């Protein structure tokens, strides 16, 4: 206080200047039913969503309203605090390879028992180099290239994720006609790729496809030989779940990897239609109890045999991924 202040009294305090909020994203208060349901779930069952950055999940996953960018940067700990969300997908690695430090940052934000399902970069899983609108422009020289896969995906993920690694998924994009006509070559490329990769310290390597031409005994034979598994791709471009199960039976015993991507009612190219219809992804608008019941049966059998299950669900499956996870958990336990 200055002498002048002492003579005439201290000046009134200036009002606090507006401060930029530093409040972290908080989880929505857990529902008692979800806590009880989680307690009954096998520790082998890891259910989650395809990512974690949706503002419309306010009240389901988040307490309060947050922007997509805020959730993407700082929402993972709140997501992982949900009693039923024991896994999540990291799909953005499909568009550009992620560094080990990025994987490690995610791993440090989740509790023990949480697992990540990560898509390999399109750099190695798409036979075509594409423009920004998704059109194939020219052949990709690194398609299923073991060196690129090791340097840009496997090594960073193994190093960064550690014990949180669930499934590393090579989702092979739709093949151009010329390659579809030469499937033997594609099987050989995939086989060579998987054989060249070191086994994961935990979790599993998995292959997901978008062409039914892959779904043959040749695929199961090469997966078994390489110690990898088939990822159930619940997508309209592929046969229904029940028709994909023979591949898993041929690989038994082993873990389950499943990604429920898109409701069949939208068709093979219905992502944009689904996104428009489902809005903020806060409601289950297109329940698919048949797929859910079949998937729950497979999860029960797999976990009951002591094998891990890594299952992620998109908002486009039924309208709201957290609600789909809850309904699937109820089906698994209730069955």
UniProtKB/TrEMBL annotation:
<dbReference type="Pfam" id="PF01904">
    <property type="entry name" value="DUF72"/>
</dbReference>
<feature type="region of interest" description="Disordered">
    <location>
        <begin position="1"/>
        <end position="31"/>
    </location>
</feature>
<dbReference type="InterPro" id="IPR036520">
    <property type="entry name" value="UPF0759_sf"/>
</dbReference>
<protein>
    <submittedName>
        <fullName>DUF72 domain-containing protein</fullName>
    </submittedName>
</protein>
<dbReference type="InterPro" id="IPR002763">
    <property type="entry name" value="DUF72"/>
</dbReference>
């Amino acid at each position: 206080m200055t002498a002048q202040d002492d003579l005439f009294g201290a000046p009134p305090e200036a009002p606090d200047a507006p401060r930029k909020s530093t409040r972290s994203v908080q989880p929505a208060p857990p529902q008692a039913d979800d806590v009880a349901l989680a307690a009954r779930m096998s520790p082998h069952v890891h259910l989650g969503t395809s990512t974690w950055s949706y503002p419309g999940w306010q009240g389901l996953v988040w307490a309060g309203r947050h922007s997509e960018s805020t959730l993407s940067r700082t929402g993972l700990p709140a997501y992982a605090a949900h009693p039923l969300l024991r896994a999540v997908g990291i799909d953005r690695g499909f568009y550009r390879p992620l560094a080990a430090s990025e994987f490690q940052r995610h791993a440090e934000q989740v509790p023990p028992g949480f697992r990540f399902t990560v898509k390999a970069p399109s750099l190695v899983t798409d036979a075509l180099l594409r423009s920004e609108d998704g059109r194939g422009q020219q052949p990709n020289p690194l398609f299923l290239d073991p060196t690129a896969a090791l340097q840009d995906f496997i090594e960073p993920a193994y190093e960064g994720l550690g014990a949180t690694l669930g499934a590393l998924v090579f989702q092979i994009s739709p093949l151009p006609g010329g390659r579809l006509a030469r499937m033997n070559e594609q099987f050989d490329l995939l086989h060579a790729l998987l054989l060249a990769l070191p086994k994961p310290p935990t979790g599993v390597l998995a292959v997901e496809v978008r062409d039914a031409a892959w779904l043959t005994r040749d695929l199961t034979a090469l997966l078994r030989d390489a110690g990898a598994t088939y990822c159930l791709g619940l997508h309209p471009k592929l046969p229904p779940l029940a028709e994909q199960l023979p591949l898993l039976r041929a690989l038994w015993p082993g873990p389950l990897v499943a990604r429920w991507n898109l409701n069949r009612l939208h068709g093979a190219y219905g992502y944009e239609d689904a996104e428009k219809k489902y809005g903020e992804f806060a409601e289950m608008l297109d329940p698919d109890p048949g797929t859910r019941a079949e998937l729950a049966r497979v999860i029960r059998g797999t976990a009951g045999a002591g094998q891990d299950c890594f299952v992620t669900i998109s908002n486009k499956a039924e309208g709201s991924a957290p609600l789909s996870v809850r309904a699937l958990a109820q089906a698994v336990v209730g069955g």
